[in-house]
Design brief:
By secondary structure, the protein is α+β, with helices and mostly antiparallel strands. The protein contains 16 helices and 16 strands. Strands 8, 9, 10, 11, 12, 13, 14, 15 and 16 form a nine-stranded mixed β-sheet that branches. Strands 5-6-1-7 form a four-stranded antiparallel β-sheet. Strands 2-3-4 form a three-stranded antiparallel β-sheet, covered by helices on one side. Helix 1 packs across helix 15 (393-412) and helix 15 (393-412) packs across helix 16 (433-442).
Length: 493
């Protein structure tokens, strides 16, 4: 079918970039030629896109910090329990220090390294209440070196948080990140603070740090975070990511849903699925299961309770089941192929047939023209290739059919009262406003609602042509300083 061939082409195109979820230093790209190709100029005019967007230079890039799933847990003592949170924190710190001392006796060359533990108190500080947690650095001789706001200014202790030092047990703040990465790091003010997004210079690198390798931080464009933020995921929600690769949005959804909730990821590309699994493993996300399947026909309900785990069945899986998950097929699945489980943080009991998801993200496949880096690659590929991939009417119609199918199926799997976000990394009317307008005409039980992203001051669809779509948000390098993204939030009545 036409949609299948287009899917293959678009997946290849998207694989050349990373959906704004980048970790390495951005590669410099040659800018637009002084004389823009006539076809490209015609495309800009047809989609009401300012040429300046593709001549803009992003002054910064983004990363997201994550609260690790291990380490000291902040808990209240039970009534009548004499042990306070301070006692628990102290025992944890002493245990870590004891282990460090043991390691130092065996490996003297590591004596300069320190263990970092979370500072817990029975009465949270104002910084804690705001989501910024301090840490305490423990030296091998058990002398505590208090460091506020993540790291603080003590140069003697900053070495503890350099790229190859042990990782902290709680999310780091801007001061800590600035010290470690040797550059200015500031929070993204227009995103909720608990998401942990920061901006830093475009040339900054963090992929070689231990914090990155152990999953404490990773690259993710703020616009991608906005798509997930619009869902307003709460602990315990059952979530569906219908086009989940390469996995950064999936991981953020899992962090928000928590261990009480679940996140089901679906992607049709076996090649990109390998990247998604790698992301899930590096970030150690919980409560997730990922399927290789066609998103237009996927029909698995949310999972029920987790299966019991044993020594012989880690995560609840048998050895044969784990082996079957690990092997990826050589071809992408078709619409009639059954879903294939390719990754799961643990085994779940089958969900009740007909059960629906509370939150659904349809980050649909597209031409990826919202990425400056991607479009500028046509300087090398040739602008005739741009015409064939982005401007061909027949191909765009097939891609639009695919996007409609993904949106239809995502809404079908959404529970009444639940929220669905439709997003693309495209700036074209055909893949955004036209798809959304068509969908709302077909579904009287769907209502477009504000995405809650007003603080970013994003753009909106043309009020004259699309007055009914003003709740949708449009991100681009000039308006919001991010990669291009279209975000529309709907609820099922």
């Amino acid at each position: 079918m036409a949609a299948s061939s287009d899917r293959s082409d678009d997946m290849k195109a998207r694989e050349t970039v990373s959906d704004g979820e980048e970790d390495a230093v951005p590669t410099a790209c040659e800018g637009l030629p002084s004389e823009v190709p006539v076809a490209f100029r015609r495309w800009l005019a047809a989609n009401q896109i300012d040429e300046g967007i593709y001549r803009a230079t992003l002054p910064h890039r983004y990363l997201r910090t994550r609260r690790p799933l291990h380490g000291t847990k902040r808990t209240r003592p039970a009534a009548g329990d004499d042990k306070t949170d301070d006692d628990s924190a102290e025992q944890t710190a002493l245990a870590a220090t004891s282990k460090t001392e043991h390691d130092h006796r065996k490996q003297p060359h590591k004596r300069a390294r320190v263990a970092v533990t979370e500072s817990c108190s029975s009465k949270p500080s104002e910084e804690d209440a705001a989501g910024v947690t301090g840490v305490v650095c423990k030296s091998p001789d058990s002398k505590a070196l208090p460091v506020l706001d993540g790291v603080g200014e003590g140069s003697d202790t900053l070495s503890a948080l350099e790229p190859h030092a042990p990782c902290p047990t709680d999310r780091l703040d801007a001061k800590a990140l600035s010290s470690m990465l040797h550059c200015s790091v500031t929070p993204v003010a227009w995103l909720p603070q608990h998401l942990g997004f920061y901006q830093l210079p475009a040339t900054a690198s963090f992929a070689s740090t231990t914090l990155y390798k152990q999953g404490y931080l990773h690259g993710m464009d703020a616009s991608s975070g906005a798509a997930v933020a619009a869902l307003d995921i709460q602990p315990g929600d059952d979530c569906l990511d219908l086009c989940c690769a390469p996995g950064a949005k999936l991981a953020l959804m899992a962090d928000l849903a928590g261990e009480q909730g679940s996140v089901t990821g679906v992607d049709v590309s076996a090649r990109r699925m390998a990247t998604c699994r790698s992301t899930c493993r590096r970030l150690k996300v919980t409560g997730t299961r990922v399927y290789l399947a066609d998103g237009t026909t996927f029909d698995e309900p949310p999972p029920a309770s987790p299966c019991p785990t044993t020594v012989h069945h880690p995560g609840g899986f048998t050895k044969r089941e784990r082996k079957a998950m690990h092997k990826l097929p050589s071809r992408d699945p078709g619409p009639t192929d059954p879903p294939r489980l390719t990754h799961a943080s643990r085994k779940f009991q089958p969900g009740k047939p007909g059960a629906k998801y509370n939150k659904v993200l349809v980050d649909a496949e597209c031409t990826h023209d919202g990425s400056i880096k991607h479009v500028l690659k046509y300087n090398t590929w040739g602008w005739d290739t741009f015409e064939a991939r982005v401007m061909d009417a027949e191909r765009m119609a097939s891609l639009q059919t695919l996007q409609r199918g993904l949106l239809e199926n995502g809404f079908r799997l959404l529970a009444p009262g639940g929220s669905l976000v439709y997003s693309t990394c495209s700036l074209t009317l055909a893949q955004n406003e036209e798809v959304l307008s068509w969908f709302l005409e077909q579904h009287s039980d769907a209502a477009l609602v504000p995405a809650g992203l007003e603080a970013a001051n994003p753009g909106h669809p043309d009020a004259t042509k699309y007055p009914h779509l003003q709740a949708a948000a449009k991100f681009d390098p000039v308006t919001t300083g991010t990669s291009g993204l279209f975000v529309a939030k709907m609820t099922k009545l």
